[in-house]
Amino acid sequence: MATAVRDSHSYIIKGGKEGRARLAVISRVLAPSTQSLLDRFEPLSGSTVIDAGCAGGDVSFELAQRVGTNGRVVGIDFDESKLVLAREEAAARGIGNIGFHNANILHPWPADGAALVHVRFVLTHLADPERFLERAWEALLPGGAIVTEDIDYGSQFCDPPCPAFDRYAELYIEAARRRGADPFIGRKLVRLLEGVGFANVDSALTQPYGRQGDVKQVAPLTFSAIANELTSSGIATGDEVGRVTAELDAFAARPDTTMSCPRIFQAWGRKPVGAQFQPTKSAA
């Protein structure tokens, strides 16, 4: 989930164990909407499924339940520290139908013949998302489905107004753009999928928010995860990062505040039987 790209130089969020902990929080927040999304593609029992950019394996574990003991899940990511944790968790759960592979999702994948490819919060970090879609196309069986989930940073909100919350969003957008990433890619997913030839493309929209629990930790955790990028690139000073961090934490801790995640688009389509991949730049 969003850490699978080694050579794009566009991933701005801190990885490793700290990054894994942040993604676990986000996965808990998104579990209901992701489960509902995957329900659209049942039955998956006995199938091969690929979780591209799997990170710590949160969605991979969900997929493993769906494919059953006669199916298999292939998780692909380049952050070995997250993969080690994912393998350990799989072993602790007694899940034997997942393989976690250290690989670059922009290069040929270590699996094919997939009934479904899932990718969450990866395309936003790619300077050339169509290159990823080509890899997904190659890995899918004819008639197989691609399922994408990605952000649109122009839409998160809080109540009451909080300048630090707004500044966090501005700084994230600036950092992503400087690295060639796209913080608004969610709204483009349908065009991207159609542009490379996927058929029966459709989409849905979700935006978790609340006054308590994990959802209020997403913004502070994400800002902490980009702090080094902000200061090392000169986008923000250490003093500003410290101030925004303190104000965000204080705002999240208040019981009378509401905070949202960015808007999240879900889009999906199928590889037509007999179709050929024809990459375009129409969705750029």
TrEMBL record:
Methyltransferase domain mapped to chain residues: 45-152
Alphabetical list of Pfam families matching this protein: Methyltransf_31 (PF13847)
SUPFAM superfamilies reported for this sequence: S-adenosyl-L-methionine-dependent methyltransferases
CDD domains (alphabetical): AdoMet_MTases (cd02440)
Alphabetized InterPro entries for the sequence: Methyltranfer_dom, SAM-dependent_MTases_sf
Alphabetized UniProt keyword annotations: Transferase
One example GO MF annotation: transferase activity
Descriptive protein name: Methyltransferase domain-containing protein
Organism: Mesorhizobium kowhaii
